Amino acid sequence: MLAQWGLGIALAGYVVWFVLDHREVFSQRFAGTTRHAVLLALGIVATYTVNSLQTLLPLRELGVRVGFWENWLLTLAAGFGNYLPLRAGTVLRMHYIRSVHGVGYLQYGGILGTRALLLLWAAGGVGLAGALAMALAQQALRIEIVLLFAAILATGIAPFLLPLDRVLPTGGGGGQVAKHLVDAIALVRRNRRMTAWYLALIVLQFGILTARLSVAFDVIQHRPAWWTYFFLSPVAAILSFINITPGNLGLREWLIGVLTAWLGADYAAGIFAAAVDRAMLVALTLGFGGLAFAIVAVRLGRHTSDPASS
Predict the structure, then answer these.
(1) Given its phi and psi angles, is residue 139 left (phi above 0), alpha (psi -120 to 50 degrees) or beta?
(2) Residue 29 in this model has a pLDDT that exceeds 80
(3) Alpha carbon distances (Å) from 267 to 47, 60, 254, 273, 274
(4) Is 140 in contact with 157 (CB distance < 8 Å)?
């Protein structure tokens, strides 16, 4: 955990330093308006809604009666809590689902793990589609990008093709984790309708992130090529769900800058645009997400202290 926080602080510090070191360039490019702020805020709310539906769908398939607004509140709370130590947001959500709705930690973890795999599957496919689009448009493309998204696709799709019940451990705690992941993957395999809806929600998430990044780039008066979003949006989506550092603060901005540069655009523009989007995201997450976190914690406390609920 200390290494994770150290990396997060280093990357966030680097992004802050970079923006401050290039503040003259940033201030010259910055052309943000109230309209930009409103569009970014709406995009972030839409992203939270789609993310909420991605966890609500498999719960409903399992027969768990979780309300739409209840799950949306949990998503906001988790978004806020994942900026805190020990991924407090995910822990709170899993504890709430277990205590209030009777879904075990490992079973819910299997659902989240399967969601992550489907996200990688879709992200890799969209990235490779972008590479194909660039090739057809006769645009230069770095092999690193093709290899990156091919690896993402392979990581997402392999667990659905391999006999995991034979490969993964069967004993101890690791075996229990593996069992619930295999069960969640089996649920996806046998329910094609749910899988289609799931993938549609992920693609919709990519579309919303494309709109958000487009607005953020417009704030700094930069117009990247349209195929750039085939790569930036999937990476942003992955980093909104799979936390390598707390909230992926700094990491997301740096990676978007690197990818923007790899695609022949301006590295600084990538970091500036990602920082603009992050500023609005943090503002909404601290405000509404913090309130949601408090509400969920209070509800959970009342439920666990109620003898009738035990």
Answers:
(1) beta
(2) yes
(3) 25, 43, 9, 10, 11
(4) no
The tokens of 177 are what? 């984790």
If you average pLDDT over residues 173-178, what whole number do you get? Answer: 61
Can you tell me the distance from the alpha carbon of 163 to that of 28, in angstroms, rounded to the nearest whole number?
56
Q: Summarize pLDDT for 195-234 with one digit per residue, the tens.
A: 888 889 999 999 999 999 999 999 999 988 888 899 999 9
Residues 114-157: tens digit of each pLDDT? 888 889 999 999 999 998 888 887 787 778 888 999 999 999 88
Q: At what angle do helices 105-136 and 192-219 cross, to 10 degrees?
A: 60
- What is d(CA 230, CA 133) in angstroms, rounded to the nearest whole number? 9
Q: Are 77 and 290 in contact (CB under 8 A)?
A: no
Q: What is the mean pLDDT of the chain?
A: 86
Count of Cβ atoms closer than 10 Å to residue 104 Cβ: 13
